Amino acid sequence: MVAYCDDESRYVVVNQTMADWFQVEIDTLIGKTPWDLYGDEMAERMEPRIAQVLSGDRIDFEGTRQFPNGRIRNLNISLMPDIGAGGIVSGYFVLATDITDRKIAEEKLALLAYQDALTGVTNRRRFAEVCADEIARSQRYKHPLSLAICDLDHFKFVNDSYGHDVGDIVLKEFANICLEVARHQIDRVARLGGEEFVLLLPETSIDGALILAERLRQQCHEHVFDPTRTALGVTTSIGITEWHADEVNMAPALKRADRALYTAKDKGRNKIIAG
After folding, report:
1. Is 195 known to be catalytic?
2. CATH homologous superfamily for 115-274?
3. Model pTM?
4. pLDDT per residue as tens digits for the range 176-200
């Protein structure tokens, strides 16, 4: 979008793109102001920038505008002063580029950076950051913090017997079970790798972690994986632990939970062990 405004912010020249965005003829826009086109609330947010460009400064910024067709566009906007003889600003040029698609792509990339590609839960990298945040919060408010590490039993047999495509289905369905059991917007589910998942449980003591882990173990035990084809039954072993207030990071707790997990495996699987 290209336009020129006079020193009272009236549009003097606009191009066809601007008219298309507003779904009007070009002549309809001539003489209008941002207040006329965007409404008072939006125009008032633009007012400081308009004042700055009229003082002789170029302004570059990103903004969001809603147009008559209802579409919200993310725009990269430049306001450039029209400086004449004697340094007098007689108006300013407006250049706006639609960057909506770029913004969507950036958001998707940001999401992929912190999301396990197969299951959609938090990945290992993001989980480490979340742990640091939750430890800081637990230290500040002296609240309990626990975690549960889960490993699908005999998962190698699933892959070897039914193929990796079925194995992927099992992993995705198990991730969904974890998300169902977890408290929405409180607990965090992450995939550490392979068939190993972890649930970070803020505001939760070891007793609370045991209750949640038993619910998870039972739901997994009762769930029919890939019901339309293989109708598999898969169980999970779980190691749980509570973070200790003198621990500066989650590494010791993860080691305790991991040891407890493998104790559960050694004792016959489909069990929960606290460490």
Report:
1. yes
2. Reverse transcriptase/Diguanylate cyclase domain (3.30.70.270)
3. 0.67
4. 999 999 999 899 999 999 999 999 9
